[in-house]
């Protein structure tokens, strides 16, 4: 994703008609099937000039030929530049993700990805007490 290499992203996804892939991008509906999932990545990559992922809180569970990886994706991204700027405005967001991988003869492939946005903390310790 960071390199904008759609062919590599395509190669990462499982290609097995007997086990359709699924993907949920933050705020999107469930996408099912390799074609639909790859179209979503093509759209994201076509509309994102810059993206960088910092993965934290990584946990891996392995059971035979299936692995589950959970993590927090700290994402910095930017859209198209405006007014002759080199890069559009940068946005940061946190996404918690679950990725299910399956081992194949070609190596590990993504079977399912689910990303959910982390909502900003709205607790304000300095808020006035309204109970009195």
UniProtKB/TrEMBL annotation:
Q: PANTHER family, per this entry?
A: NUCLEAR TRANSPORT FACTOR 2 (NTF2) FAMILY PROTEIN
Task: Give the species.
Answer: Streptomyces roseoviridis
Q: Which InterPro entries match?
A: NTF2-like_dom_sf, SnoaL-like
Q: Per UniProt, what is one Pfam family of this protein?
A: SnoaL_3
Residue span, SnoaL-like domain:
2-119
- Protein name according to UniProt: Nuclear transport factor 2 family protein
Tell me the superkingdom of the source: Bacteria
């Amino acid at each position: 994703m960071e390199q904008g290499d759609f062919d590599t992203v395509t190669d990462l996804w499982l290609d097995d008609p007997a086990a359709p892939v699924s993907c949920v991008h933050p705020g999107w509906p469930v996408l099912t099937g390799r074609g639909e999932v790859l179209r979503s990545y093509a759209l994201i990559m076509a509309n994102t000039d810059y993206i960088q992922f910092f993965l934290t809180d990584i946990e891996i569970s392995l059971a035979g030929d299936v692995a589950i990886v959970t993590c927090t994706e700290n994402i910095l991204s930017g859209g198209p530049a405006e007014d002759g700027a080199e890069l559009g405005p940068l946005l940061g967001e946190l996404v918690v993700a679950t990725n299910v991988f399956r081992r194949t003869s070609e190596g590990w492939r993504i079977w399912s990805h689910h990303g959910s946005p982390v909502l900003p903390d709205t607790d304000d310790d300095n808020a006035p007490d309204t109970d009195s």
